[in-house]
């Protein structure tokens, strides 16, 4: 291995360590308390080393959120591929989205700015909209199959996304006084009613 390759590998390793340390700190202390100094201390490097790899904390948060969206996209694709008809695909996708949110709360909070500023404003990538795109595709196929108006698919799928994201947000921000089973039941009923309305 040449000197250039060794330096590149070391650089990638430090970058990965920074991201891992930031995510680990967020899990134990919360996103709001994260700082470049804490990250540097966690990886046992000086703060300038962290700044050599990331311009600021926002850049680190953006990178982590991208990873979150990538992980979510994989889960959604798995759920979609388990079913052949759009009605079952829609239900499975929403269920996978719900499960991801609560299994990966730190990711979800960062990805959508729950209780904090959303990272990556104005820097959207393909993964950011995969859930909405899948909802739209299923909605469009159901509407077309039912002989309804395909032009309503965008509005309808956006309404469903808003309902799902809203229920998750309520659960995450007010989980002390709302039973989890109540919101999951509400979600399932909402999706069933949505499919019937198409």
Automatic annotation (TrEMBL):
<dbReference type="InterPro" id="IPR009057">
    <property type="entry name" value="Homeodomain-like_sf"/>
</dbReference>
<dbReference type="Pfam" id="PF13305">
    <property type="entry name" value="TetR_C_33"/>
</dbReference>
<dbReference type="InterPro" id="IPR025996">
    <property type="entry name" value="MT1864/Rv1816-like_C"/>
</dbReference>
<dbReference type="InterPro" id="IPR050624">
    <property type="entry name" value="HTH-type_Tx_Regulator"/>
</dbReference>
<keyword id="KW-0238">DNA-binding</keyword>
<feature type="DNA-binding region" description="H-T-H motif">
    <location>
        <begin position="35"/>
        <end position="54"/>
    </location>
</feature>
<dbReference type="InterPro" id="IPR036271">
    <property type="entry name" value="Tet_transcr_reg_TetR-rel_C_sf"/>
</dbReference>
<protein>
    <submittedName>
        <fullName>TetR/AcrR family transcriptional regulator</fullName>
    </submittedName>
</protein>
<feature type="domain" description="HTH tetR-type">
    <location>
        <begin position="12"/>
        <end position="72"/>
    </location>
</feature>
<keyword id="KW-0805">Transcription regulation</keyword>
<dbReference type="Pfam" id="PF00440">
    <property type="entry name" value="TetR_N"/>
</dbReference>
<dbReference type="InterPro" id="IPR001647">
    <property type="entry name" value="HTH_TetR"/>
</dbReference>
<keyword id="KW-0804">Transcription</keyword>
